[in-house]
Amino acid sequence: MKVALFATCLVDTLTPSVARATATLLQRLGHEVVVPPGQSCCGQMHVNTGYRREAVPIVANHVRAFAGAEAIVAPSGSCVASIHHQQAAVARRAGEHRLAEEAEELAGRTYELSQFLVDVLGVTDVGAYYPHRVTYHPTCHSLRLLKVGEAPLHLLRAVRGLELVELPGAEQCCGFGGTFAVKNADTSTAMLTDKMANVLGTHAEVCTAGDASCLMHIGGGLSRLRAGTRTVHLAEILASTEEAVTPDQTTKPAVSA
Amino acid sequence: MTATVPPKAPTFLGLPTAPRGVGHLRGDQSFPDAARGALRDGQLRANLGHATSTIRGKRAKVVGELPDWAQLREAGRALKAATMARLDEHLEELERQVTARGGVVHWARDANEANEIVTRLVQATGTSEVVKVKSMATQEIGLNEALEAAGLDVFETDLAELIVQLGEDSPSHILVPAIHKNRAEIREIFARTIPGVDPELTDDPRQLAMAARTHLRERFLRARVAVSGANFAVAETGTLTVVESEGNGRMCLTLPETLITVMGIEKVVPTWRDLEVFLQLLPRSSTGERMNPYTSTWAGVTPGDGPQEFHLVLLDNGRTGVLADEVGREALHCIRCSACLNVCPVYERAGGHSYGSVYPGPIGAVLSPMLTGVEDNASLPYASSLCGACYDVCPVAIDIPSILVHLRAEHVEAQERPTAEAVAFRGLARVMSHPRLWHLAQRASRLGRLIARGRPTLPNALPPPISGWTRSRDLPTPPKETFVESWVREHGS
Predict the structure, then answer these.
(1) What phi and psi, each to the nearest 5 degrees, are found at residue B409?
(2) Which chain A residues are closer than 8 Å to B346 by Cβ?
(3) Using CA atoms, how far apart are residues A91 and A42, in angstroms rounded to an integer?
(4) Contact A51 B476 (CB under 8 A)
(5) Chain B residues with CB-CB distance to A55 below 8 A
(6) Which of A139, A148, A187 is the best residue to mutate to test the B interface, defined by the most B CB atoms within 10 Å of its own CB?
(7) What is the pLDDT of residues B236-259, one digit of tens each?
(8) CATH 3.40.50.10420 fits B31-161+224-320, yes or no
(9) What are the Cysteine-rich domain coordinates in residue numbering (chain A) (predicted)?
(10) ipTM of this complex
(11) All domains of chain A, ordered by start, with CATH?
(12) Distance (Å, rounded) from C-alpha B336 to C-alpha A135?
């Protein structure tokens, strides 16, 4: 299949390795990947902060950039949730009915990575190798708005060498919430503190999730604590293979399965 | 000369729009400021974390028992939506039925009017003492303070409300007003404030309950006037309903000579049959019980049995304004079960007092600003990470996250002068809708690499609003090249 990759503004700008991994993975599974260069953002941050009128041209740009794409995949539950639940609504509210229809139609072809792999392609074993102890944080928008369900867990369980450990209080929000992390920095930090305690309690080497934004928040906190645990996006784990292990991974002993 | 048409009073769905809500709906601090103190209180966080996780577990268990929970929830949502669409007709029917059964109906546009009506009714009985059933409506209007200002003594009879009243505190949860207090703290309040209490009182829940019971029993037998709220009012029969766990409410509803019920106009349900749905949804969502230990219903007065005088005060206090908002209207569907509070990660950590209003938690973050006008409670719509746990548990499926986002937009759009944030977001929107500008901006973000000077994370001493992030989290240094740039370089555009 010809897959258009939506890198998302945050991944593209701050963690390009996540988009790179998504492309590598899809290509390895035999799909053609295209990256529309006109893409920028889904508009979620604007809508969620109260700038819904300002989000309309961003939605228009997104629709323009991905027009004609057969399937669109993004390594982010929250951006895909915004495309599904917000884009058409803000356009319609602004009286842009044609744009709303186009956005709605585009949303029907847009998938979060784990949903695309499991629900659309019907693949759970993507041939990955990742010899680490990993815990999975189901991010709120993946869990509740997109209802990705067990898809990421099915994918992780099929990764060779990976030891999956359950995260206590997994369904509690990490406290990111876009501008919430800045506007309510203290409450956000209190939520993050509990999330980090749960992550560290699993003694996992890696905390993974399907959203780079939540991982930036959790990872930023773990980095500040100088905790040994890292955050790695689900796409990067799934893109790892025995042939392509990073030096960092070869130096670490594989955790026995 | 053309005749000028006099401006019509704004109306919606047949109801005149009342003034904005007054009473205990506003705090004197913004949410982030109020939360800061609560977050530092380790005891409060421990009490809240323990209590909310216990109720969460109980709720999940009893909800899981019902195979048709999803259908019940949909029925509750649909009944509420249908009721709101013809609220005027249902309220008029309620008034007719209550009156036909010997009750008196009063309409209060706001908290002040409601307080005046109740004060006048109590004074007319010639008594100086009032017993109360736990009620959010009377908390909302500040009735206790109004009655006390008129020289009347008010006694809360719900155990948790009693704890709050004796401790000269304010409620911090819709259902468990003293949730922020643990047993040891409650023992201390009782030992200090209940006259003649056993000095050997321990913090054993049974002992505490018995101490409260002895104290209250005397009040019940003495009281001539009671004030209650209502969980539901059935329009077709004029029946009022109160559900509770302790039976103190039933004492108030049956012993005194005069009963005054204050109820928000959104509490009406059209028919008796509708209760079938709500009396299943409410206890499972609120206390994690299959049914309420006490469900009391009454209609008007019966000679020789129970109160001989019954007054119903129908309170607007901003509700018709909420009804006129097509997105926010759903907030009026709330049956005050408080399930959203118990799952909210923000409530669990910041506590109920941080919300400033008698309605805390997710539902408070939408209801309070809607009742008062968003400008009076501007920080509340932002007091959420939009995680959506509240929407998941709401027994009448109120889409709280969407209403929060809607209110944020109302707030932004109502600003007369652009704030620094608005300027930034408008600029960013322009950039994000033009790919060429976007790529330039992404390149500019790489200036962060200069500040980072080769380190993987940016330094902590960055200016606001970024400092809100870097106070507790490391921000990654932007990479040399964006993904799209590298892709175009390798594959062409």
Answers:
(1) -65, -40
(2) 184, 187, 191
(3) 12
(4) no
(5) 429
(6) A187
(7) 999 999 999 999 999 999 999 999
(8) yes
(9) 3-83, 134-218
(10) 0.94
(11) 2-120 (no CATH), 133-249 (3.40.50)
(12) 37
